[in-house]
Design goal:
The complex is a heterodimer. Chain A is mainly alpha-helical. Chain A contains 16 helices and eight strands. The longest helix of chain A is centred in the C-terminal third of the chain and has 33 residues. Chain B contains five helices and eight strands. The chains are: A mainly alpha, B alpha+beta. β1 of chain A pairs antiparallel with β5 of chain B, so a sheet runs across the interface.
């Protein structure tokens, strides 16, 4: 076994005897050669499912591969789908490479191993957040404070409650009435409540000083109540997402409560299976959650407008504002967060990994391309636009909050 | 009787580097000379035997059977190196197969001759065993490296990515 330097490939030295048992020869086998002789075998046909996404700016369809065995999802480009179809256990990687060259006229040596790694891992979309904070703490375990923080977070994360049998519950809820949420009647009701709420909000705006004065009499209680009440409504957002899956015949893989990043209590629904549905299904599922905030905001404004001056009126008005903010945050796609609006955007433009690819392109390729005065492709312009808009949005958000704090402090 | 060339050969063996000439000369008379032919199997994995060998000329391949007629090469050895010491001390069957990769010449010492050497020259024997421990440690390190390399080979050959 030998190897030299970086980028090396391991060698295995095998001694092969002659058939008479006397002579022998030593053969060096490079790991790369062995790799090329592999014959990848995909799981049985009954255990996977392939769905087509519409053509994006690359003018090529993309695909979502679902493992029914592991309940995992993998996004494939058209060439990757071609390679997947060849992985029948009879075709070696060398032959796969040849077939790829013949079909596409070019050979990126990384395409096949990259795809194989992804297929082997099958770690696909998940709604469970991965905390960067935990990664940082794990890297600094030598530090006692980091160890203590990690232990504390681990303890908090044990508060996670989830159910993988949630689908049956949501199916029953849907059957016994929740199907109405996805009927034309629900749209009409939402439209009526929105109009009523908008009119009420205009009316309340004139009394904003009076309303905020009522809240100001009990500021701590008011803030805590508004936040707590809002937090409780987050579950309705997630429930509607889950019901949308049932509506479109897909499976709710998990529903539960967790501490996001270890310290933000939140409910979540794993809606990954919607990626096997139609584009309409994906967009409706994404929009339905945020619309809960629109409905609640309008409803609170309307009820508040019917009440006389007092803490309850102020509480409802503040809650309505918070719901509107949530609607905006959930639907606004340019903030580096993969919220509902982001998922709608990527579905519309056909770039499901926009956030990741845009960040990678801007960080590692853009400046080199600019220096070399190379023209950008259409989807590269999209990456640049996404990062630019997101950066501006985050900066505007931070500045607005700083201004708000300074303004509030001075007044 | 050992000639200066014979003593120079023994001095080339790391185990004897610090042993006085007189002791080496006494030892040499107890060594048994063997001729090697390329492809010749000196010992097979699982065979009995209580001799260790010092290579004077030529090269040998140390291997362990993997499957059928295929062995994995564990090491290659040349002049001044030695093999077969494990069975000399633990009296267990040979742990690997030794095959000549070229024509050559080796010298063997059996347990009885080694015991005599220890009794006659205890100080030289102490030096011999100290060197032997050093070689064992080096071979243990090499074995660890080999395990790591085989694992690396397996990961590369299968394309398995365990980091993500």
């Amino acid at each position: 076994m030998t190897g030299t330097g970086g980028g090396r490939r391991s060698r295995l030295e095998l001694l092969v005897r002659g058939s008479e048992g006397t002579g022998f020869e030593v053969r060096e086998i490079l790991s790369t050669v062995a790799y090329l002789r592999n014959r990848p075998q995909r799981i049985p046909d009954a255990e996977w499912e392939l769905a087509t996404l519409h053509a994006g700016p690359r003018r090529a369809p993309t695909f979502v591969l679902k493992s029914r065995r592991r309940d995992r999802y993998l996004q494939l480009s058209e060439p990757e789908r071609f390679l997947w179809e060849q992985m029948d256990g009879r075709t070696s990687l060398q032959e796969l490479g040849t077939a790829y060259v013949l079909r596409y006229g070019a050979f990126d040596f990384e395409v096949i191993p990259r795809l194989i790694r992804r297929l082997q891992q099958a770690e696909l979309l998940t709604m469970r957040p991965v905390s960067r904070l935990r990664e940082v703490l794990a890297r600094n375990r030598a530090n006692a404070a980091a160890r203590a923080a990690e232990a504390a977070l681990r303890a908090i994360e044990r508060l996670t409650v989830s159910s993988r049998a949630a689908h049956d519950t949501f199916s029953q809820v849907y059957r016994y009435g929740a199907f109405l949420l996805f009927s034309p009647a629900a749209i009409v009701v939402l439209a009526i409540v929105t109009v009523l709420g908008a009119r009420a909000a205009v009316g309340l705006w004139a009394d904003s000083a009076e309303i905020s004065a009522e809240l100001g009499k009990h500021p701590i209680v008011a803030i805590l109540l508004v936040k707590l009440f809002f937090w409780l409504t987050v579950i309705s957002h997630q429930i509607v997402h889950a019901l949308a899956l049932v509506h479109y015949g897909r499976r709710v893989r998990e529903f539960g409560f967790t501490m996001l990043h270890g310290f933000i209590p939140t409910f979540y629904a794993d809606v990954t299976d919607i990626f096997m549905g139609s584009r309409r299904a994906r967009i409706v599922a994404a929009v339905s959650g945020p619309l809960v905030h629109l409905f609640l905001a309008a409803f609170y404004f309307w009820v508040a407008s019917l009440l006389g001056p007092g803490l309850l009126k102020g509480f409802l008005a503040a809650s309505a504002v918070l719901q509107l903010q949530s609607l905006f945050v959930a639907l606004y796609p340019f903030c580096f967060l993969e919220m509902d609006g982001y998922h709608i955007l990527v579905d519309l433009i056909g770039l499901p990994t926009l956030n990741h690819e845009a960040a990678r392109f801007v960080r590692h390729e853009l400046w080199g391309r600019v220096r070399r005065r190379q023209r950008l492709t259409r989807h590269e312009w999209l990456y640049v636009a996404y990062v630019g808009l997101s950066t501006l949005s985050v900066a505007a958000f931070v500045l607005a909050n700083v201004w708000l704090i300074v303004h509030a402090g001075s007044s | 009787m050992a000639s200066p060339a014979d003593l120079a050969f023994l001095r080339q063996v790391s185990l004897f580097q610090d042993v006085p000439d007189a002791d080496l000369a006494d030892l040499f008379v107890h060594l048994k000379r063997h001729r090697l032919h390329r492809g010749q199997v000196l010992m097979r994995e699982g065979d009995g035997g209580t001799e260790m060998f010092f290579i004077r000329v030529g090269e040998i391949v140390v291997s362990k059977n993997v499957k059928g007629r295929v062995d994995q090469v564990l090491a290659r050895m040349g002049p001044g190196e030695f093999f077969g010491e494990m069975s000399l001390f633990d009296r267990l069957p040979r742990s690997a197969t030794i095959q000549a990769d070229s024509d050559g010449e080796i010298y063997g010492i059996d347990a009885e001759s080694l015991d005599r050497f220890i009794e006659q020259s205890p100080r030289a024997a102490a030096v011999f065993f100290f060197r032997l421990v050093q070689v064992f440690i080096k071979r243990l390190r090499d074995s660890s490296d080999l395990v790591a390399e085989v694992t690396r080979w397996g990961l590369e050959a299968t394309g398995l990515d365990v980091e993500s």
